[in-house]
Amino acid sequence: MEIYLTTVLYSLAAIALPAIWIWRGRGPISREPLPHYRGWPVFGNLFQVRRERPELTFSEWTKDLGSVFSVKLLHSQFVVLSSFEAIYEALVTKGNSFSGRPTKNAFRAEEFSGHFSSIMRLQANRTRKKLRLICHKKIKMYDTGMKRIEAISMHMIQFLVEEFQGADQTSFNPKDVIYNTVMNTMMTLLLGKTFTKDEKFFEQIKEFEQKAIRTLSSSGRGAELDVFPWLRFFGNKTYKILKRVVKLKNQIWEMMTEEASRGDLLLKEGEEDVRLMSALRDALAEKDSGITEKHLRSVITNDIVLAGTATTSNSLYLFLNIISRHRAVQMKLQEEVDRIIGSDRTVCLTDKGDMPYTQATQLELLRYSSVVPLALPHTSLEDTIIQGKTVP
Ligand code: HEM
Question: Is 338 contained in some domain?
């Protein structure tokens, strides 16, 4: 039984009830029909959903339909889960049953992810497991990983503080500075080098991110392409942007492979190669690894550059926005920073345990807001019951 859990990919959604939605590819909606609103013939609920912000419509519908309900958008039927309990049950308790990824009626994702070759779009198979393992291992999970993340972050924080100080107490929009900081953190992990914001590469990545967000929204512009891919032959505007996104993705990949080769020459004898790019290239070279160049291209551009930068930078930007409206919280945060860190040094990971207010604020911000309010699409691999309702 196929299922599909999708998301308004990387749309910046201030303060929304997180929800996930699951798409079913075939078979009846449920043995006991899931609650739903009657839609239009052919279009289903398409015109009842706020196209750029579907999560707001779903939050509203939860009040009447409960936390597990179905939605029909053109030919695709989804199951929306919109409470902590329902999401936990689907992704944690019954995670294996929901570990599939949709491939039907997903034309835009197929184009964008190189025929479903990114971690986000691969089925739960051996290749996906291997790619995830390499990324986790190289980025943070094992041994000295967190120390390296700490060193990279400290360097980036220093840069960020200098940029903020450079504003000289005048008001400014920190979006670009935050974006550049996060992007360079990713670039250090991938390639062991940073870029300045006026380099062409940076501009390309920014354009890649902005256009990808616009073209991939689940119910937003271009959703019709998923069901009627032939529309691309009739001047479909979203398809034109999607083509540009794929072109940018390929340019970014080429640029990164060139940078990686340049980096190879700079490695000293006996020096450990800590670049994620190198670990992925090694896996590609392994016999029978099942990993192809297409996987590498998609993992690096989609899963790390785009997924890592857009989510983290938009979250930080959103957090600053929220905090700026809560002066009492700012004062308490400042008091804790002054007391624990002072002004002679930079924050480090071991300070975490001594800063309960800062930690609680971060967790509350993650709970209160979401930049990926509909998470990623999943499909179910078998009939499953969520909150007492059958999801086929
Ligand atoms: C504040 C920061 C972040 C937020 C809010 C966020 C959010 C999410 C969400 C909601 C999912 C979907 C989970 C699911 O439905 O199964 C996801 C998956 C994913 N994220 Fe993030 N993420 C963040 C940071 C990052 C970073 C830094 C990276 C890369 C370095 C990353 C790469 C990925 C990948 C590859 C997946 C797919 C995982 C899989 O399918 O196994 N994310 N993220």
Answer: no
Say if pTM beats, i.e. exceeds, 0.70: yes
% of the chain beyond a pLDDT of 90: 63
The 10s digit of each residue's pLDDT in 310-339 is 999 999 999 999 999 999 999 999 999 999
Q: What contacts 282, CB < 8 A, 6 or more positions away?
A: none
Q: What total of structural domains would you count in the chain?
A: 2
280 shares its domain with 162: yes
Q: Are residues 303 and 238 in the same domain?
A: yes
Cβ-contact 299, 121 below 8 angstroms: no
Q: Quick one: average pLDDT of 25-29?
A: 45
Residues 245 and 152 in one domain: yes
Contacts of 340 (CB under 8 A, 6+ apart): 351, 354, 355
Which residues make beta-bridge pairs with 24?
Answer: 3, 77
| Ligand 1 pocket: which of 120, 311, 312, 366 to mutate (most atoms within 8 A of CB) | 311
How far apart are the C-alpha atoms of 77 and 46, rounded to whole Å? 11
Nearest Cα residue to atom 25 of ligand 1: 308
For the stretch 300-316, pLDDT in tens is 999 999 999 999 999 99
Residue 7 lies in domain: 3-125+372-391
